[in-house]
C-alpha cells in the first residue's frame, strides 16, 4: 500500500505533496513530486504564501476581529480555526 | 446603550484601524489598486469622523484642539473622567 496514495486521509502535508502541478524529478521515476514552487526556488528555506487582496470585513467588524482580512482572521482557540482548510 | 459620543468614538477607532490595516497591507503591496483605493476611502472617512467628533465633543488629539477663543485642550473632559465619556 503506497503511503502517498490513500488520498482520503490526506493531511495538510499530504495535500501539498500531491499538489497537481507536481512534476517528478527529471529523468528519474522518483515518486517525490517537486511541489508547488518554481524550479529555481532554493530548498531548505521557509516560504510564506503572498497575501492577495480580498473583500475586507466592514471596518467595525474588523476592529473587533483584529484584522480587516478574513483570511488573516485566525483566532488561536485550541482547535482548527479553519474547518478542513489550511 | 452606547451614547452618541461613544458611537462616534467607535467610528473614529474603526476607521483608524482600517487605515492602519491598509497601511500594513500596502507596505508589501505598494501598487495594489484595491489596497490604494481602500486606503483613500477610509482615510477620508477617518478624517470626517474625527472632525465630527471634535466639533461636538472637543479635541481627540492636541492637533484637534480649537484655540481660537480659549485653550480647549484642558477645558474639555479628560478620557478618564468616566462620567463624561
pLDDT averaged residue by residue of chain B: 90
Helical region count of chain A? 2
Q: Quote the average pLDDT of chain A.
A: 76
What share of residues of chain B is helical?
55-70%
Shape of chain B: elongated
Give the CA-based shape of chain A.
elongated
Derived from helix and strand composition plus strand pairing, the structural class of chain A reads mainly alpha
Strand-residue proportion of chain A? under 5%
User: Order of helices and strands of chain A, N to C?
Assistant: HH
Secondary-structure content class of chain B: mainly alpha
Taking pLDDT < 50 over at least 5 consecutive residues as the criterion, the unreliable ranges of chain A are none
Helix content of chain A: 10-25%
Most extensive interface? A-B, 11 and 17 residues
Strand content of chain B: under 5%
Radius of gyration of chain B: 16 Å
| Gap between N and C termini of chain A | 26 Å
Taken together, the total number of domains of chain B comes to: 1
What integer value in Å does the Rg of chain A equal? Answer: 18 Å
Distance between the termini of chain B: 13 Å
Q: Biggest sheet of chain B, open or closed, and with what strands and sense?
A: none
